[in-house]
Structures are given as C-alpha cells and as structure tokens.
Design a protein that fits this description.
Elements (H helix, E strand, L loop, with lengths): L6 E4 L5 H12 L3 E5 L4 H15 L4 E3 L6 H15 L4 E4 L14 H29 L2 E6 L12 H20 L5 E8 L5 H4 L2 H8 L3 H9 L11 H11 L11 E4 L7
Parallel strand pairs: 1-2, 1-4, 2-3, 4-5, 5-6, 6-7
Helix pairs in contact: 1-2, 1-9, 3-4, 4-5, 7-8
Bound molecules: nicotinamide-adenine-dinucleotide.
Length: about 260
Amino acid sequence: MNLKGKTALVTGSTSGIGAACAMALAEQGATLMINGFGEAEAIAALQAELSAKSGAPVLHSDADLSDGAAVQALADRCLKELGGIDILVNNAGIQHVCPVEDFPIDMWRKMQAIMVDAPFLLCRAFVPGMKDRGWGRILATASAHGSVASPNKSSYIAAKHAVVGLMRALGVELAQTGITANAISPGYVWTPLVENQIPDTMRTRNMSRDQVINDVLLAAIPQRKFVMPDQVGAFVAFLCSDAASAITGANLAVDGGWTAQ
Ligand code: NAD
C-alpha cells in the first residue's frame, strides 16, 4: 500500500480519531490537509510530525464545519492548493447529551451541519475530480450509534444514521467510477469526545464517573475495552488500498463486538 501522490483531507484531525487517521495516511505518503480546532502550537507540532512521516508539507484549516460557507471555502482551498482531493475522510463530530424535550434546537442543527451537511458538501465538491482521475476514497467516521441507540443522544444518533445512509448511497451511485464510499463505525474510543460527555451522563443518569465508564460505556462493548484511535487509522489506510477496492457502500464496525449483540 502506498499513497504517494494522493491528496487527503481528514476533517476534525487535530485530535483523537481524526489525528490517528491522518497519521496512518501520512505513513503511506499521502499529502494532507488537516482540519479542526486547537492550540496553534499543538497543531504546528502535529503538522511537523505528519510531514516527517509523509515527506510532504501538511496544510491545516480551522474551517468551522458547522458553517456551510466555511465548508465551501475549505473545499475551494483544497482544489486550489492541492489540485483536488483523492481521499476524503469525513471525521469531524461533536456530542451533546440531553433528553429530547430539552435538547437545544441550535445544538441539534449544529450537530447535523457538522456530521451530515459538511460530508455532503465535501463529497459534492470533490467527486467530480475523483471521477476525472478514475480513483477516489470517501470515508465517514460514523459510529455504533449509526445502527443502534442509547438514551439522550438524539441528534448524534440521527446524524450518524444519516451519514451511514450517505455513504451507502454514494457507494451505489459511484460504483462504476473507481471511487468507493464507506462508513466506519467505531465503538467507544477514549478521546476528548467521550471524556467530555461523562459529566452530562453522570447527571442525566444519576451515576458516578466510574459507573458511567464501567456500567454505561464499557458495558456496551463485549470486549470490555475502548477501541484505540490508531486501530481506526489503520483501517482507514487499508480502505484506501487497492486491496479494498471491492468494499463500497458498507457500514464497517470497529466496535469490539458492540453491534454484533
Ligand atoms: P475529538 O473530540 O477527539 O475530535 C474531534 C475533532 O473534530 C477535533 O479535531 C475538533 O477540533 C474537530 N471539530 C469539532 N467541531 C468542529 C467543527 N465545528 N468544525 C471543524 N472541526 C471540528 O473526537 P473523536 O472521538 O476523535 O471523534 C471523531 C469522530 O469519531 C466524530 O465524528 C465522532 O462522532 C466519531 N466517533 C467517536 C467515537 C468515540 O468513542 N470517541 C465513537 C464513534 C464515532
């Protein structure tokens, strides 16, 4: 597997799963645009580490993917500065834990914008170039919550089901173009996204921190351990290889058995 000469955009790659996906693609030589928020120093260090692995400069965009105009500007920048994107990893996502009757409408919309609208807009922008080149890989970090549910996560679960549907639709629509489209659905991965939801889960379920970790998070997973970000990264790199060219339109679980139950 060698992705030298391929360009890749990984959204939400300044942290967690996205950073691990960017690292795995850099190890295969892909030229990267990373995206997401964070301290300037930490992002510069990540860019330097990725660049040392890929042997190519690594660009960063802090485009806020909840804003459609910013998503379009990011796409335009990729087209202008990288000549297009061969590998699109729609990874950025946020969580909000709240009973449906209290769920803030703005938060519902923001989550749908980041996790459904932005992937659609980025696919729309990059598919023409992928078709011209006869090769492309479109991926979305969905979730076990793209096929099963838990309480108090209505917007997240709706968005993840939707992005699984988008990947499925594009897998079929683009089947004869050399482009594959797949959803990867991790179980719980120990990242800031999971850690930050613990206080709200403690409050809404009246549980201690240890109870949330053991009786809610790990209890969902038959392997009783968190998925590691680099396990998702390695899988993304595999799905970008020629060996994976027949895998398309799929929702692929990396969840320690969660959705097999
Ligand atoms: P994380 O919080 O560690 O990273 C999220 C990334 O998205 C960061 O780089 C952040 O800056 C970026 N981001 C957040 N809001 C953004 C916005 N408006 N515009 C642009 N970038 C934004 O989270 P993570 O756990 O690595 O999650 C990555 C993806 O994996 C998400 O889509 C998440 O839903 C999914 N996922 C996570 C888990 C898990 O257990 N951690 C499980 C299944 C799926």
